[in-house]
Amino acid sequence: MSLDDNDYWRRWIARLLAVLAADLSDQLAWAGEYQVRTAAVADDVGFVLHLAEGMAERGTLDSDVFQDLRAIDRLVGEMDVRHHAGRWVQALAVDGAWSEVRILARRILVARLGEWRLPLPRRVLPQHIYD
User: Fold this and answer.
1) pLDDT tens digits for 72-98?
2) pLDDT of 92-116, one tens digit each?
3) pTM value?
4) Which residue(s) pair with 37 in the sheet?
5) How many Cα atoms occupy the beta-carbon half-sphere of 37 within 13 Å?
6) DSSP output for 23-39
7) Of 41, 50, 53, the residue nearest 17 (C-alpha)
8) What does the pLDDT look like over 4-46, one tens digit per residue?
9) With CB atoms 3.0 to 4.6 Å apart as the test, which of 34, 46, 100, 118 could cross-link to 123 if both were Cys?
10) What are the CA-CA distances from residue 70 to residues 48, 90, 94, 119, 121 (Å)?
11) How far is CA 93 from CA 31, 72, 79, 127, 128, in A?
12) Any idea what DSSP says for residue 59?
């Protein structure tokens, strides 16, 4: 793995997967603390998939991991979360597909790191938070 790809993994992919893989209670607390919007999670998933595509093209990302990331992106797309302005805590409570996302994220982390429980990252809040 190149230094850049390792940096992509640590800075973006692993951080998002840590959030997506966390137990529901931890996700709810984290999303509530940072007032995360569901659309922002979808945007993060799309960004991470873009990074993963480049890594896969360079042969620095295992194809199984890449396929699981694509499956997460597909699930998030099927939930049509970009068109819902609500908070992620609300989406987590009502949409069971987040459980499937959680399973896939855990599988990726275990395959890559041997463990799925990672500390949840700090989130930089936007300048303005709209309700």
Assistant:
1) 999 998 887 655 668 999 999 888 899
2) 988 889 999 999 999 999 998 999 9
3) 0.87
4) 87
5) 16
6) -HHHHHHHHHHHT-BHH
7) 41
8) 777 778 788 999 999 999 999 999 999 999 999 998 999 999 9
9) 34
10) 10, 24, 23, 23, 22
11) 12, 18, 13, 26, 25
12) T
Structure tokens, 122: 């700090």
As given in the structure block, the two tokens for residue 106 are 């855990």
Angle at the Cα of 75 (from 69 to 61), degrees rounded to 5?
A: 5
Structure tokens at 130: 């709209």
> 45 to each of 2, 15, 49, 52, 98, how far by Cα in Å?
22, 11, 6, 10, 13
| Amino acid (1-letter code) at residue 126 | P
